[in-house]
Amino acid sequence: MPRFVCATCAAQFPDADAPPPECPICEDERQYVPEDGQRWTTLEELARTHDNELRVDGELTGVGTEPSLAIGQRALLAPLGDRFVMWDCVTCFDGAAADEIERRGGLAAIAISHPHYYSGMADWAARFGCPVLLHADDEQWITRPDAAIELWDGETRELGEGLTLIRCGGHFAGGTVLHWRGGAGGAGALLSGDIVQVIPDHAHVGFMYSYPNLIPLPEASVAHIADALEPYAFEVIYGAWWERLVRRDAKAIVRRSAQRYVRAVRGELAR
Predict the structure, then answer these.
(1) Which residues contact 175 (CB under 8 A, 6 or more apart)?
(2) pLDDT tens digit sequence for 136-160
Protein backbone atom coordinates (compact mmCIF):
# COMPACT_ATOMS: atom_id res chain seq x y z
CA MET A 1 0.00 0.00 0.00
CA PRO A 2 1.26 3.54 -0.67
CA ARG A 3 2.27 5.93 2.08
CA PHE A 4 0.46 9.17 1.39
CA VAL A 5 2.15 12.50 2.01
CA CYS A 6 0.50 15.92 2.11
CA ALA A 7 2.03 17.92 -0.74
CA THR A 8 1.59 21.20 1.15
CA CYS A 9 3.12 20.42 4.56
CA ALA A 10 4.80 17.04 3.80
CA ALA A 11 3.18 15.27 6.76
CA GLN A 12 3.19 11.49 6.35
CA PHE A 13 0.16 9.32 7.01
CA PRO A 14 -0.14 5.56 7.64
CA ASP A 15 -0.03 3.25 4.61
CA ALA A 16 -3.47 2.98 3.04
CA ASP A 17 -5.20 2.26 -0.26
CA ALA A 18 -6.45 5.85 -0.51
CA PRO A 19 -5.35 9.18 0.94
CA PRO A 20 -7.07 10.60 4.04
CA PRO A 21 -10.04 12.89 3.40
CA GLU A 22 -8.00 15.85 4.64
CA CYS A 23 -4.70 16.83 6.22
CA PRO A 24 -5.52 18.05 9.74
CA ILE A 25 -2.28 20.03 9.92
CA CYS A 26 -3.18 22.02 6.80
CA GLU A 27 -6.82 22.41 7.86
CA ASP A 28 -5.58 24.13 11.01
CA GLU A 29 -5.48 27.92 10.86
CA ARG A 30 -1.71 27.95 11.32
CA GLN A 31 -1.22 26.27 7.95
CA TYR A 32 -3.41 26.34 4.82
CA VAL A 33 -5.07 24.27 2.12
CA PRO A 34 -4.15 25.61 -1.34
CA GLU A 35 -6.80 27.44 -3.33
CA ASP A 36 -7.15 24.47 -5.70
CA GLY A 37 -7.68 22.06 -2.81
CA GLN A 38 -5.88 19.36 -0.88
CA ARG A 39 -3.10 17.68 -2.84
CA TRP A 40 -1.37 14.39 -2.12
CA THR A 41 1.77 12.62 -3.19
CA THR A 42 3.32 9.37 -1.96
CA LEU A 43 6.65 8.47 -0.45
CA GLU A 44 7.31 6.28 -3.49
CA GLU A 45 6.74 9.17 -5.89
CA LEU A 46 8.98 11.47 -3.85
CA ALA A 47 11.77 8.87 -3.89
CA ARG A 48 11.81 9.17 -7.69
CA THR A 49 11.95 12.96 -7.77
CA HIS A 50 13.73 14.11 -4.60
CA ASP A 51 16.96 13.40 -2.72
CA ASN A 52 18.44 14.34 0.62
CA GLU A 53 21.31 16.78 0.73
CA LEU A 54 23.86 16.95 3.54
CA ARG A 55 25.83 20.16 3.82
CA VAL A 56 27.47 22.37 6.40
CA ASP A 57 25.33 25.16 7.85
CA GLY A 58 27.18 27.23 10.43
CA GLU A 59 28.93 24.82 12.80
CA LEU A 60 26.51 21.99 12.08
CA THR A 61 25.62 19.61 9.28
CA GLY A 62 22.14 20.06 7.86
CA VAL A 63 19.91 17.50 6.15
CA GLY A 64 17.71 19.01 3.45
CA THR A 65 15.62 17.95 0.47
CA GLU A 66 16.40 18.71 -3.16
CA PRO A 67 14.47 20.06 -4.88
CA SER A 68 12.76 21.86 -2.01
CA LEU A 69 9.61 20.15 -0.74
CA ALA A 70 6.54 21.69 0.93
CA ILE A 71 7.63 24.06 3.73
CA GLY A 72 11.27 23.56 2.77
CA GLN A 73 12.88 23.19 6.20
CA ARG A 74 16.16 21.38 6.79
CA ALA A 75 17.06 19.25 9.77
CA LEU A 76 20.26 19.73 11.78
CA LEU A 77 22.62 17.23 13.40
CA ALA A 78 23.49 18.42 16.91
CA PRO A 79 26.40 16.54 18.55
CA LEU A 80 25.61 14.24 21.45
CA GLY A 81 28.84 12.48 22.36
CA ASP A 82 29.84 10.25 19.44
CA ARG A 83 26.36 10.47 17.89
CA PHE A 84 23.85 13.16 17.01
CA VAL A 85 20.40 14.43 17.81
CA MET A 86 18.52 15.15 14.61
CA TRP A 87 16.81 18.47 15.25
CA ASP A 88 13.60 18.82 13.25
CA CYS A 89 13.07 16.45 10.36
CA VAL A 90 12.37 16.07 6.64
CA THR A 91 9.96 13.73 4.87
CA CYS A 92 12.21 12.29 2.19
CA PHE A 93 14.38 9.41 3.35
CA ASP A 94 17.43 8.79 1.18
CA GLY A 95 19.37 5.64 2.05
CA ALA A 96 22.66 7.12 0.91
CA ALA A 97 22.25 10.13 3.20
CA ALA A 98 21.28 7.88 6.11
CA ASP A 99 24.33 5.71 5.50
CA GLU A 100 26.55 8.80 5.59
CA ILE A 101 25.01 9.90 8.89
CA GLU A 102 25.61 6.38 10.22
CA ARG A 103 29.23 6.58 9.09
CA ARG A 104 29.63 9.79 11.11
CA GLY A 105 28.18 8.19 14.24
CA GLY A 106 24.43 7.83 13.72
CA LEU A 107 21.47 9.25 15.59
CA ALA A 108 20.85 8.93 19.33
CA ALA A 109 17.47 10.65 19.06
CA ILE A 110 15.24 12.87 16.93
CA ALA A 111 13.70 15.97 18.53
CA ILE A 112 11.22 18.19 16.70
CA SER A 113 10.18 21.76 17.34
CA HIS A 114 6.52 21.56 16.31
CA PRO A 115 4.04 19.57 14.18
CA HIS A 116 4.79 21.25 10.84
CA TYR A 117 8.13 19.39 10.88
CA TYR A 118 6.99 15.95 12.10
CA SER A 119 7.25 14.89 8.43
CA GLY A 120 9.21 11.61 8.05
CA MET A 121 10.18 11.14 11.69
CA ALA A 122 9.07 7.48 11.82
CA ASP A 123 11.24 6.46 8.85
CA TRP A 124 14.35 8.16 10.25
CA ALA A 125 13.73 6.66 13.69
CA ALA A 126 13.34 3.17 12.22
CA ARG A 127 16.60 3.46 10.29
CA PHE A 128 18.60 4.45 13.38
CA GLY A 129 16.63 2.61 16.07
CA CYS A 130 16.25 5.80 18.06
CA PRO A 131 13.38 7.58 19.83
CA VAL A 132 11.49 10.60 18.53
CA LEU A 133 11.04 13.19 21.28
CA LEU A 134 7.87 15.27 20.96
CA HIS A 135 6.27 17.51 23.54
CA ALA A 136 3.08 15.95 24.91
CA ASP A 137 1.13 19.19 24.41
CA ASP A 138 1.22 18.55 20.65
CA GLU A 139 0.26 14.85 20.69
CA GLN A 140 -3.00 15.48 18.81
CA TRP A 141 -1.06 16.55 15.69
CA ILE A 142 0.75 13.24 15.14
CA THR A 143 -0.46 12.04 11.72
CA ARG A 144 1.53 8.79 11.59
CA PRO A 145 1.70 7.16 15.04
CA ASP A 146 4.76 5.00 15.72
CA ALA A 147 6.21 3.09 18.65
CA ALA A 148 9.40 5.17 18.45
CA ILE A 149 7.55 8.35 19.47
CA GLU A 150 8.28 9.32 23.07
CA LEU A 151 6.20 12.14 24.53
CA TRP A 152 7.75 14.38 27.16
CA ASP A 153 6.12 17.06 29.26
CA GLY A 154 7.13 19.90 31.50
CA GLU A 155 9.25 22.90 30.58
CA THR A 156 12.66 21.34 29.85
CA ARG A 157 14.27 18.02 29.08
CA GLU A 158 17.99 17.42 29.42
CA LEU A 159 19.42 15.22 26.67
CA GLY A 160 23.00 15.20 27.98
CA GLU A 161 26.25 16.63 26.62
CA GLY A 162 24.94 20.19 26.97
CA LEU A 163 21.76 19.68 24.90
CA THR A 164 18.47 20.83 26.45
CA LEU A 165 14.95 20.88 25.02
CA ILE A 166 13.02 23.97 26.15
CA ARG A 167 9.25 24.29 25.76
CA CYS A 168 8.53 27.85 24.68
CA GLY A 169 4.99 27.42 23.36
CA GLY A 170 3.85 30.23 21.10
CA HIS A 171 3.48 28.89 17.57
CA PHE A 172 2.17 25.61 19.06
CA ALA A 173 1.39 24.72 22.67
CA GLY A 174 4.33 22.32 22.77
CA GLY A 175 6.60 24.53 20.67
CA THR A 176 10.16 23.54 21.54
CA VAL A 177 13.69 24.83 20.92
CA LEU A 178 17.00 23.05 21.44
CA HIS A 179 19.76 24.75 23.42
CA TRP A 180 23.30 23.60 22.59
CA ARG A 181 25.60 24.79 25.34
CA GLY A 182 28.75 23.97 23.37
CA GLY A 183 27.69 25.82 20.24
CA ALA A 184 29.40 28.97 18.94
CA GLY A 185 32.70 27.89 20.44
CA GLY A 186 31.17 27.49 23.89
CA ALA A 187 29.13 30.70 23.85
CA GLY A 188 25.97 28.67 23.19
CA ALA A 189 23.59 28.21 20.28
CA LEU A 190 19.81 27.97 19.95
CA LEU A 191 18.17 25.71 17.35
CA SER A 192 14.77 27.31 17.08
CA GLY A 193 12.74 25.99 14.14
CA ASP A 194 9.77 28.34 13.73
CA ILE A 195 9.31 29.00 17.42
CA VAL A 196 11.81 31.85 17.28
CA GLN A 197 11.90 32.79 13.61
CA VAL A 198 15.09 34.16 12.06
CA ILE A 199 13.87 36.86 9.69
CA PRO A 200 15.56 38.24 6.56
CA ASP A 201 17.68 40.95 8.18
CA HIS A 202 19.20 38.32 10.53
CA ALA A 203 19.43 41.10 13.13
CA HIS A 204 15.99 40.36 14.59
CA VAL A 205 13.72 37.41 15.18
CA GLY A 206 9.98 37.04 14.82
CA PHE A 207 7.17 35.34 16.71
CA MET A 208 3.87 34.34 15.12
CA TYR A 209 0.89 32.08 15.68
CA SER A 210 0.64 31.52 11.91
CA TYR A 211 3.40 32.53 9.53
CA PRO A 212 1.63 31.89 6.19
CA ASN A 213 -1.61 33.47 7.42
CA LEU A 214 0.08 36.32 9.32
CA ILE A 215 -1.75 35.72 12.60
CA PRO A 216 0.17 37.28 15.49
CA LEU A 217 0.68 35.89 18.96
CA PRO A 218 -0.65 37.67 22.04
CA GLU A 219 1.84 39.76 23.96
CA ALA A 220 1.87 37.29 26.87
CA SER A 221 2.96 34.41 24.62
CA VAL A 222 5.96 36.33 23.31
CA ALA A 223 6.90 37.38 26.84
CA HIS A 224 6.75 33.70 27.85
CA ILE A 225 9.12 32.72 25.03
CA ALA A 226 11.62 35.39 26.06
CA ASP A 227 11.35 34.40 29.72
CA ALA A 228 11.83 30.69 28.93
CA LEU A 229 15.09 31.49 27.13
CA GLU A 230 16.45 33.95 29.68
CA PRO A 231 18.37 31.37 31.78
CA TYR A 232 20.37 30.17 28.76
CA ALA A 233 23.41 31.70 27.10
CA PHE A 234 23.48 31.68 23.29
CA GLU A 235 25.42 33.69 20.76
CA VAL A 236 23.95 32.08 17.63
CA ILE A 237 20.46 31.05 16.48
CA TYR A 238 19.82 28.44 13.81
CA GLY A 239 16.46 28.99 12.13
CA ALA A 240 14.46 26.49 10.09
CA TRP A 241 16.03 26.93 6.64
CA TRP A 242 19.48 26.85 5.09
CA GLU A 243 21.66 29.80 6.11
CA ARG A 244 18.90 31.34 8.21
CA LEU A 245 21.30 32.13 11.04
CA VAL A 246 21.76 34.84 13.62
CA ARG A 247 25.55 34.70 13.84
CA ARG A 248 26.26 36.95 16.81
CA ASP A 249 24.68 38.62 19.84
CA ALA A 250 21.65 36.32 19.52
CA LYS A 251 20.37 36.53 23.09
CA ALA A 252 20.28 40.31 23.01
CA ILE A 253 18.52 40.12 19.65
CA VAL A 254 15.78 37.91 21.15
CA ARG A 255 15.30 40.37 24.00
CA ARG A 256 15.22 43.36 21.64
CA SER A 257 12.88 41.63 19.20
CA ALA A 258 10.44 40.63 21.95
CA GLN A 259 10.38 44.24 23.17
CA ARG A 260 9.77 45.47 19.61
CA TYR A 261 6.94 42.97 19.18
CA VAL A 262 5.24 44.20 22.35
CA ARG A 263 5.52 47.81 21.17
CA ALA A 264 4.00 46.80 17.84
CA VAL A 265 0.95 44.98 19.23
CA ARG A 266 0.36 47.91 21.60
CA GLY A 267 0.33 50.27 18.63
CA GLU A 268 3.46 52.10 19.75
CA LEU A 269 5.25 51.62 16.40
CA ALA A 270 2.40 53.10 14.37
CA ARG A 271 2.95 56.54 12.90
Answers:
(1) 113, 114, 135, 138, 167, 168, 169, 193, 194, 195
(2) 999 999 999 999 999 999 999 999 9
The rounded distance, in Å, linking the Cα atoms of 222 and 242 is: 25
Q: Where along the chain do its domains lie? A: 4-16+23-265
Q: Mind listing the pLDDT tens digit for each residue in 4-28?
A: 999 999 999 999 999 999 999 999 9
- Give the mean model confidence (pLDDT) for residues 196-225: 96
For 4-16+23-265, CATH gives 3.60.15.10
Q: Where are the beta strands (DSSP E) in the chain?
A: 4-6, 40-42, 51-57, 60-66, 75-80, 83-87, 107-111, 132-135, 149-152, 156-160, 163-167, 176-180, 189-191, 197-198, 205-206, 236-238, 245-246
